[in-house]
């Protein structure tokens, strides 16, 4: 996958096996996993498998989660991006575009997630012509819920996953896509 996106402070590029160590440092932190499944990774091999899975998604769907790099320092700060969910059902849905991100704790509260979200929404709506973008967040994750709301997502409902964890389901409709359809 050749796609690279840039924001004023971030470089968004496909995940590479060379990102494994930095991603391992992020995903072994229990605080990072507080609003996920509270299952931090224990071995770097787990991360290698995740990166391989994401790379397979690039080939299958031509999109997936990307390494998010701080331009100023070259540091891997986490991942962000659009995923086409075709490998499981979430809140009764499959075959949908999902926006998501995970940043390492030292990079929280600095506006990076919002900056990346805006870039991905612009790319997804204007370049990929996605009609509807979904996202889901842990119902208690105030920071992520705030970012989605701030970037235009509409809260749809709270739902309980099969494992008993409660999530918020979000949706954002591509207004430019509906305008194109109307003008045809």
Quick tags:
33% helix; 5 helices; 8-stranded mixed beta sheet; alpha+beta; 184 residues; disordered C terminus
If you had to describe this structure to a student in words, what would you say it looks like?
The model is unreliable at 178-184 (pLDDT under 50). α1 packs across α2 (44-61). The protein is globular. The longest helix has 18 residues, at 44-61. The chain is built from five helices and eight strands, in the order ββααβββαβαββα. An eight-stranded mixed beta sheet has the order 1-2-3-4-5-6-8-7, sandwiched between helices. It has helices spanning 20-27, 44-61, 112-127, 142-150, 175-183, and strands spanning 5-6, 10-14, 65-70, 76-85, 96-103, 132-138, 154-160, 166-173. By secondary structure, it is an alpha+beta fold.
